[in-house]
Amino acid sequence: MSPTTTLVSSPGKVLVAGGYLVLDPLYSGTVVSTSSRFYTLVTDDLVQSGSGRRSPTSPIQIRVRSPQFVNATWTYKVTLPTGDNKSVLVEQVIDPSSATVSKNKFVQLAIDRTIALASEILGPSSTEPLLSNDIDIIILGDNDFYSQRAQLTSRNLPPTLTSLTQLPSFLHTNVPISQVHKTGLGSSAALITSLVSALLLHLKVIPPSSFDSKVEKSENDGGVSEGRRLAHNLAQYVHCLAQGKIGSGFDVSAACFGSQIYTRFGKEVLDPLMSVEGYNTTDVSLKTTLSSSNPLWNYRVEPFQLPPSIRLMLADVDAGSDTPSLVGKVLKWRKERPEEAKELWDHINLLNQKLSKTLRELNILAEKFEVEYKKVVKYLSSLMYVQWLANPSLPEAEQKIIEQFYQARQTTEDIRAGMRKMGSLSCVPIEPPEQTDLLDTCISVAGVIGGGVPGAGGYDAIWLLVFDPEDCPQTDLPSTRVEGVWSTYKSLDVSPLLATESKDKGVRIESVDGVKGLKELLSELPN
Ligand SMILES: Nc1ncnc2c1ncn2[C@@H]1O[C@H](COP(=O)(O)OP(=O)(O)OP(=O)(O)O)[C@@H](O)[C@H]1O
Ligand SMILES: C[C@@](O)(CCOP(=O)(O)O)CC(=O)O
Fold this sequence. Notes:
With 527 residues, the protein is an alpha+beta fold. Helices cover 39% and strands 17% of the residues. The protein has helices spanning 46-49, 105-122, 124-127, 149-154, 161-166, 187-202, 213-219, 226-243, 250-257, 286-290, 323-336, 338-368, 370-380, 396-426, 433-443, 478-488, 518-524, and strands at residues 5-17, 29-43, 60-65, 73-79, 89-93, 135-141, 260-263, 300-303, 310-317, 448-452, 461-467, 494-497, 508-509.
């Protein structure tokens, strides 16, 4: 086989509405995929990897490196099924000279399960030649996935968006993965989705057109290829296996399909595959279970994107919360007080639907009244919310657009109130008072539409939607005013993230030259 290199990326996520509710298939979540991405490069190019063609008797080796971390190289030996041994075996090769053994369950399971699926679909004898050269995998996450506070401090830079753009790409974190401060963009979901997608492509289980949205649109009713759906199902499976539980899966879905209104799949589809010890001896077929035509994969992905000239802003709040414990407490409350919970969840659900409908309506208005829409964005970008409706003599189209923005503001506020109520009823700090103060300060800034705490909430982060008018001097942009508030905010340590919304539909095939800083990084990697 001639050497090949495959590079794939997948985005991070922000659950702007639907936290907790999205765990139940009766409700949905509005998830925005981020411009910050995870990249997986798979290569068997002898020059690049410095390794060589295997002799037929030596084992298949896969080396994985995460160059942003200390002690983050993992080598695996792969045994394909032969004779009586029907399962794929992926074992870590431990270097006896190394003082500490580093393991990465997420990476190991992704490789193991993807090769097992490939071997079922292609047959072991067709899979073997695809692994005839040793494989090198490089994993990289955009800086946003990890807190850059220490990097900014060490360079004497203030915590602003401008400072973040000055940092080199894929900065080393100077710690092992287990000690890194994550920012909540869903590193593990983006990592697994990009890794399994890259391997499925590399092993030719799916064609590159699987991730070409133009081809997908022209060839498929729903605009989504079979290959992308297979990658999604596999990534959901691996993520659940690595986390040891079946979550809602909104993060993996966003990494695969992009921004969307997400309704989860029923847990039943993965139950037979979820035994960690027994997964590779089970008689359950991966090919059948993970197939895009398996009706048990009953998730729903409705396309969604933010209206034009609206910017998503994110800030990492350096306090942190333990999501699983928040989820455990909320679900306990829901179990103990089902009626109270149902009433509140139904109420929040209507508000969530109202928000996505309003944003959708704004997309339609922006297309229909392009000039008026731009004018309104510019006009509102310098006004505080209380002034938005102050001029009733504006032309009808402009008035209509302003009313929708006003509605978006009110609905985000109503959702926040609903989430705070859920927090107080379940005794969980979903939007704790410190975050309420921060959000109230931010949304009172001119040009800010609304905001909230993403996902499970707590002390981790906040999101805002702000007007982002074209041809506006940097100093007059709402995002610049917000940054000013964040950098001087005293009661919490607030640090911006660079991420905006990714309008691309999830997994994307990349070229090394097209990813800023990648070529340089690869050229500096030791063999
Ligand atoms: N750059 C990376 N290279 C290799 N593995 C990684 C990398 N980043 C994350 N991981 C894997 O993902 C695991 C973290 O998963 P975890 O579910 O705790 O994070 P998360 O909830 O997705 O994070 P966040 O949403 O805060 O970004 C790590 O232990 C590691 O196995
Ligand atoms: C609480 C929950 O609905 C969202 C958690 O989101 P996040 O990881 O806090 O972004 C859990 C889930 O959907 O898996």
